[in-house]
């Protein structure tokens, strides 16, 4: 199944950070060219799991060498001992797969790491990471794992007070999603979410591939379960509305599906958020108004969702589905548009008519 990241743009576009996505490549020189161990990854996985189980940092760090390796090892020890992660060797060679399931995860999250190996005193050691297609935050920053009532916060560089406050905001977002009652039948959401908050914008870019100045947050499914990553540049004013938007994505698992129409995916998240936060509702109303003044009423439902105006228009479309159908029927229909290709042409024509009628009404209202 294909996966896409669902994100929400912030208001103020900023310059692209000139940060390459290859920061973790590092400089890794093997200490000795070869190891006599025919299965070094398997040996390392067993040793890492045992040392983490015994909470033995010395035995854990003995599996790492070189400054890059030591830095990685310290961060790795943290996620294995604070978040219950474990290591195994996936089929195919010089990789290690780190898996963990936190409160708030629906499924196990796993990252495949391409490790650079060397040999020290006759045993295999990890000297760093080779460039990986997917870079988990915990390899870049020393994560603090904070338990919330409705999930888990993974952060770096925040004070205890800041973590407690963000944990409360996480709980509030999860509670608002539950209250909005928009999770369709067939999705097993346990009411929790997992939120990552990188310390630096550069690490946000590496993990998400998106500009931290323009993107407030991302919900992605790349690890096998939806998790949310928040931009460290989010302002207080926008943190809660953006977190709620992303929490809707995570709860309804929209990032885990590649089918469907973007207006339904983004419109639902945006609509739930603007129903809860006047700052979001006010801005979206103004964006739609200026769009209608400049471009008139469009001909169809929004296609690509890129600008903040696109989000606002998508929320109008989803809002009209809820205005015309009973709540449960609206949830079911929006979900069919969002995650499947199963909505009929007649259903699409109906939603399009409601949407264009609403925009026509707004365009005629002074
Ligand atoms: Zn979104």
Main attributes?
single chain; 366 residues; alpha+beta; Nuclear Transport Factor 2, Chain: A; Zincin-like; 3 domains; six-stranded mixed sheet; four-stranded antiparallel sheet; 11 helices; 10 strands; elongated; binds zinc ion
Please give a structural write-up.
The chain has 366 residues and is an alpha+beta fold. The protein folds into three domains: 24-134, Nuclear Transport Factor 2, Chain: A (Roll); 140-258, 2-Layer Sandwich (Zincin-like), CATH 3.30.2010.30; 259-366, no CATH class. The protein is 45% helix and 16% strand. The chain contains eleven helices and ten strands. The protein has helices spanning 40-53, 57-61, 66-82, 160-180, 201-208, 236-252, 262-276, 278-295, 308-324, 327-339, 345-364; strands at residues 6-9, 86-88, 95-100, 109-120, 123-129, 144-148, 151-155, 193-197, 215-220, 227-230. The protein has a six-stranded mixed sheet, sandwiched between helices. A hairpin with a 2-residue loop joins β4 and β5. The longest helix has 21 residues, at 160-180. The N and C termini lie far apart (46 Å). Mean pLDDT is 89; it is low at 11-30. Bound molecules: zinc ion. Zinc ion binds next to β1, α6 and α7.
